[in-house]
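Data availability excerpt. The first of two example chains:
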Amino acid sequence: MSRIREFTLPDLGEGLTEGEILTWLVKVGDTIELNQPIVEVETAKAAVEIPAKWAGVVTKIFHEAGTTVEVGAPIVAIDTEPSAGPLPSDGPGPSAESLAAVEMAPAEGAVEPGLIGGPAPGGRTAVLVGYGPRDAAAKRRPRISTPGASTTAPAATPPAAADAGRPAAPPPTNPSPIPAAPPAPVPADGHHTGPVLAKPPVRKLARDLGIDLTGITGTGPSGSVTRDDVQKAAAEPEAAPPAAAVFDASREQRIPVKGVRKLTAENMVASAFTAPHVTEFLTVDVTRSMRALEKVRARPEFRDLRVSPLLLIAKAVLLAVRRHPMVNSTWAGESQEIVVKDYVNLGIAAATERGLIVPNIKDAGRLTLRELAEALNTLVEVAKSGRTPPADMAGGTLSITNVGVFGVDTGTPILPPGESAILAVGAIKPMPWVHKGKIKVRQVTTLGLSFDHRIVDGELGSRFLRDIGEFLTDPEGALLSWT
């Protein structure tokens, strides 16, 4: 058996076909142990960590983070026998002969043959095109004629011939100074109308910085533009003309639809256009529930737990299901049956960075209030971390979505696939309420129940929602009379 074993992406549950690599927890060369988490992968269900199937050394990672990989494709190679020595593919190091055959780089200051200024093959000197090697003394160009001088230059004559023909002329006793050319006029707006005086390095600097020299007032001699003038112009904020608003891809953001968000979208579309939805609303006074919640928090067995109003709402749903079991059922279209569940896998909708997920508490109806609080805390913490396993999101029978945490009064939720009812809970806030014949400030919330009208008719849905509201209005009385 080969020492190098390729670990393929496994099917992480319910026939998933692909997953996106989120983070590698190891790198090439790392020594890993059996069942050590090596990579975090997001599927259409959730983000999960995948453990190693073998111990050894990571030799290759086939896909970088952010790549979507099909189930069954190799993702990492592991050397399962690193103690056996180097792999057969590891070649020997370079021999002394091969190192001796390597040509050493020339010493510092030496010019490699063929480079500019160095000897080229054939004894030539390498030069730039248009520039030959210096083989003669430089000759100075004739001086430009000055005012008063002849416009026709005399023919070039050797000095000896000129001296032989005539005596040397004495130098002028009072030479007239050459007047300097007046600087180009600069208008009041600072823009030149003629050529701009600037040295070649200054012009190059202006080109590199994208500065128009005609718009700069020079501070150098004769109004010339200096390097400081150019750099000062570059540092000044450019007054850009107001641009017309554009409506194109430069002002858009495209988010790939994949993973949890893709599956949620597909499920919501399938549910919305398969199950006929009906939504009913009920506004209830939950002042007594909030007082009961304070009593629960004060009890010793709940002091180490986070106890929220969701605990009592979940308990109200579970007790209402006992009274109306048909609400906890599934429409089986293939067999034309209604499947009534004798267990409640209570789903709790959770908003995560990767999208909306609905993990569920298995057999929640059999849990005590303390166990239900523990399960809710664990479910929320795991969902926020993005590590909810696919198994926790499968098999839900009835769900709750708490939109009140966002300050929303209520909504019309869409059923998760396969479920017949979902309860939306709005914000709990103080409102004027008629209590015992008087207007008082009470804690009030609004419930929204969506149900599948193929299974739950208006009467059943109304009775179910009424019982939930009755429990939340007086939870202590309902616990005594319902259980």
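And the second chain:
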Amino acid sequence: MSNEIIFDTIAKQEWLEAAADPISKAIRDLFPGDAGRAIKNALHGTWLGHPLHPVLTDIPVGAWTLAMIFDALDGLGARKELRAGADFAIGFGLLGAVGSAVTGVTDWSETDGRGKTIGLLHGLLNVAATALYTTSYFMRKQKKQRSAGIALSMLGFAVANASAYLGGHLVFGEQIGVDHTATPDADQPEDFHPAIAEDKLTENSPRRVQVQETAVVLIKRGGRIFALNATCPHLGGPLDEGKLVGDAIQCPWHGSELALEDGHIVNGPTVYPARCYEVRVRNGMVEIRAARKQAVTASSPGAAA
């Protein structure tokens, strides 16, 4: 309960809410045109099939933890070479922090609500920790200031861990960076189930249907019917309210584009593909089941099961 009070308090900070939107817009504006979109996709991690940001966060966290251990051993009278190791670890962590920050703000710019507000504080704490470690790094080079530099790095470690605590909540509490369609296979229709009469589908007009417990978006296009999970994997946006962009459907919330044919990612910010379904038409009814292998012609008699 106390944790939720902390997060609610952060989410209700008006200064964070006021700053979040203009900052995120400014970040999105840094990626104009197709080239910018390609860079942004790479920073999100669409090529990795997993968000890139959490991969890079391990670099500063690990390096700065090692630096703290070396500092402690040095203070206990261990070999003086550990001082050089601690300084190197801090410098290496600073390099990792740059990559972590760039990918982190890119992901953060495509969030909303509580996640955006809490994420902004998470980022500000990371900036503070990086500033403390940067100052510590240069103070360590001066013999008379080394002790103060070590003290600053200890403070930076505490700030970085507070930020990491918020980062964990963003993933596990706010569900940022997870696949919002990652439901158990048992919840998906294993056998063909009727979804809608074929004549109720309009060409190039996404239509949401419910099949068992699954929300599906159906798109009739070029004489074929495509079926995808109606929920965008990125942050759960309604794909049925999106628009068609070429051979993909674009989420109305953050612009992720997912291929109609097989759900692969055409453009981020999503790093997870869409779940697709196998389609057939029987007696004028569109039927679907899980694990769609290919789309079928909308009105073809005896469409493959």
